[in-house]
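COMPLEX REQUEST
Ligand: guanosine-5'-triphosphate
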Amino acid sequence: MGFQSGSIAVVGKPNVGKSTLVNELIGQKLSITSHRPQTTRHRINAIDTQANYQMVFVDTPGIHIGNNKAINSYMNRAASSSFNDVDMIIWIVEIFKWTKEDARVMEHLNKVDIPVILCINKIDKLESADKMFPFLETLNEKFKATEVFPLSAFERKDTQKLRKLILKYLPEQDAIYDEDYITDRSQKFVISEFIREKLMRNLSNELPYDITVEIEKLELDGKMYRIAARIFVDKASQKSIVIGQNGGMLKKIGMESRLSIEGFLDAKVFLELWVKVRQGWSDDKRALASLGYD
Ligand SMILES: Nc1nc2c(ncn2[C@@H]2O[C@H](COP(=O)(O)OP(=O)(O)OP(=O)(O)O)[C@@H](O)[C@H]2O)c(=O)[nH]1
Ligand SMILES: [Mg+2]
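STATUS: Structure written out below.
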């Protein structure tokens, strides 16, 4: 067998563990995750190059129903467009959590003609493995997947097995990306996402997910990066939540963001954060485009 290479879209409804699985598969934190649905907003390619293969995982926003804001249609489009231009698909369903949104994803899958690995995630939540069989059976009646693979995205031995399964279907062809690439996205993009992750994790219940981050400065100063980022919120009340009492929340978000950016850039970082109100950005196509949602 020669060199194998291909792209694998990771799809599913929100919050099933797509981004967690992608990070585990490439062995590096690249895509942001949180316990809130609709964390991922943009497609991102995560690339794993080994001696005999290259896997390009396409992490996608969760496909969802029930909101007609411009940003929601943007996210659904970003996800569904990836069904067509990849070599195979990993479809994630959470164990025991089948909903209308899973059925929506299945409608897209019914139209494709490439291998689909159906991953049943979060099985670490089960007390015993045999509890999952009835659920697997009903799924099997709904959809004939190429492979069905129950796993926990947190379990290294599971993700290693999944990698072997992917290799079974990965086409024999040259690498798509140079071996030193880990993503198709810019440094600025990844950094802005890391900051958004800390916002989502720290402000989960108080804040709608209408928040976005723009990097205004990214400069290498000797061995240190100087970064300035602006956080856009929809309302003045949200701005005070992000800043927190005596600026405490913004400070915490800044500190956590800096640590994860330092891990990504492998260098010291000086990070400045600003908060700005930009009313209605999430339902305004022009504002969306200016913030990178195009
Ligand atoms: N118990 C358990 N939790 C998991 C597992 N995989 C992911 N999670 C958790 O599920 C939540 C959602 O994970 P994400 O990876 O952000 O999910 P996603 O599908 O990318 O979500 P969206 O980007 O919003 O569509 C996080 O709190 C994860 O820690 C798993 O195998 N077991
Ligand atoms: Mg995600």
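REMARKS: Residues 74 and 293 are 7 Å apart (CA to CA). The chain has two domains: 4-169, 187-290.
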